Amino acid sequence: MSTPTTEIVNRPNPAITARGIALASMDDLARFAAMVSKSGLAPKGMESPEAVAIAVQMGLELGLTPMAALQNVAVINGRPSLWGDAMLALVKAHPAFEWIKEECDGNVATCTIKRRGEPEQSRSFSQADAKAA
């Protein structure tokens, strides 16, 4: 009867760049997700390594670094969603973005945005709208 052997696998470490860790493989992502999960620093809704990996992958697809993805992807009703200032930052980084103006008169908030080659668009939301939502 042979004795099982343990194979030692030398895995290269992910590169560290000016934008943080560069996950170059599924193995890198899995290792990173496990580390975040074990650290206890994962946001609510991302307690398992698998949930961390999905949130990071969503962020990577949008151009966010892994840490930015952890801070700016929220899991709501089991669905990862971009939230907070990250959404506006991605819009502003797009080459078609020209400008944005946000106003609030105390009762109604209005956001007007302009994309290159298109007419400006405005949307308003009142306190009554917020209460109804």
Explained architecture:
The protein is an alpha+beta fold and 133 residues long. Helix content is 38%, strand content 27%. The chain has helices spanning 26-39, 49-62, 66-72, 85-93, 127-132, and strands at residues 15-17, 20-22, 73-76, 79-82, 97-104, 108-115, 121-126. It has a 3-stranded antiparallel β-sheet with strand order 5-6-7. A two-stranded antiparallel ribbon has the order 1-2. Strands 3-4 form a two-stranded antiparallel sheet. A hairpin with a 2-residue loop joins strand 1 (15-17) and strand 2 (20-22). The longest helix has 14 residues, at 26-39.
Distance between the termini: 68 Å
What share of the residues lie within helices?
A: 25-40%
**Structural class computed from helices and strand pairing:** alpha+beta
Indicate the proportion of strand residues. Answer: 25-35%
User: Helical element count?
Assistant: 5
Q: Uncertain segments of ≥5 residues (pLDDT<50)?
A: none
Main sheet: which strands, in order across? 5-6-7
Compute the number of strand runs.
7
Mean pLDDT: 88
What is the gyration radius calculated from CA atoms? 21 Å
| Succession of helices and strands | EEHHHEEHEEEH
The global form is flat
The main pleated sheet reads as: 3 strands, antiparallel
